[in-house]
Known about the structure:
Blueprint: H1 8-20, H2 32-40, H3 42-59, E1 68-72, H4 78-87, E2 94-98, H5 102-115, E3 121-122, H6 125-129, E4 134-140, H7 148-160, E5 161-169, H8 172-185, E6 190-193, E7 215-216, H9 227-236, E8 244-251, E9 262-270, E10 274-281, E11 284-291, H10 296-304, E12 310-314, E13 317-320
Parallel strand pairs: 1-2, 1-4, 2-3, 4-5
Antiparallel strand pairs: 5-8, 6-8, 7-8, 9-10, 9-12, 10-11, 12-13
Amino acid sequence: xxxxxxxxxxxxxxxxxxxxxxxxxxxxxxxxxxxxxxxxxxxxxxxxxxxxxxxxxxxxxxxxxxxxxxxxxxxxxxxxxxxxxxxxxxxxxxxxxxxxxxxxxxxxxxxxxxxxxxxxxxxxxxxxxxxxxxxxxxxxxxxxxxxxxxxxxxxxxxxxxxxxxxxxxxxxxxxxxxxxxxxxxxxxxxxxxxxxxxxxxxxxxxxxxxxxxxxxxxxxxxxxxxxxxxxxxxxxxxxxxxxxxxxxxxxxxxxxxxxxxxxxxxxxxxxxxxxxxxxxxxxxxxxxxxxxxxxxxxxxxxxxxxxxxxxxxxxxxxxxxxxxxxxxxxx
Length: 331
C-alpha cells in the first residue's frame, strides 16, 4: 500500500467511528485494502504509541516471558508486530493474531509473515478455543468498543497469560476504565508499568475525578516535513504532534522493583514563575510546583525531558530514569 493508493473515504468512515465511540455492533473491516489504508495511517500512529510503551518497559528492565504472543482484537496487527520487532522473533514461540473479522486476521497474519520470516504466525482461532497458557497477551485500542461478553473473554485470557500489555488512547474515559481493570489484577499479576507501586490506583480515589493516567508519545520528526502525513493530518482533523496514550503492563513473575520511584502523569505545565506537575507514587496523587527562582536548572530539564518521566526524589535532588538526569528539589 502506498499513499497514492489510500482510500480516503474509508479512512473518513473509520475516523467517524472512532469519534463516535461506543461498543461495536460487529466486525467493521471490509477488505485487505481497507486494512492496508488504516495500517499506513492510523495504525502507524498507534505503532508510535507502542514504541513509547515498549521503550518504557525496556527502561524498567522488563523482558517478555517467551511462549506465544496473542494479539487480541488485532485489527491490522500493528501491536503484535511492534512487540515482536522490539524484542526479536527469537524471544517467542510464535505470534497469534485474532480478531472477530476474518479479513483482519488474514491481513495481520500475512503482514507478520512478510516482516518476520521464520516466525510461526497463526490466526489465533485454535488458541482462543483452547486452554493452553499464553506467553504474552497484547491488547490495543479496543476498550471503547467492547461489549460486556468481550470484556469477560479478555479476563479469561488474562487468567491464562504469563504477561499482559494493554495500550489504549489517552482519553479520560478509557484510561480510568483501564485503571479499574488493573486494580482487579494486582493480586495475581505484578505491575510492571506505568505504576511505580502495586497499590490501588490513586487516580480512582474520591476527589481525583478530573485526573486520568496518560502519557504522550513522540512522533518521528520526519512526518512534519512529509506532505503525505501533513495531508493525512489535515483530512483526518488530527494534530500530528499529539499522541496521548494510556497503558498497563503486568507480569506474573515480575520481580523488578520501583520502590521509591514516582511518575509524572500527562505533561508538565510551564508558567513564568514555576513548573507544575502531577505526581503519582505509593503515597498517592499530588500536584507539585517547582519554583524557577529556587530550581532553574530543574525546571529547564523538566520542560525538555523526552518521553514519560519516571524519577526519584532524594536528598541530592531528582534523578530522572527516562530522559536527562536532573538536579533540584520541588518547592
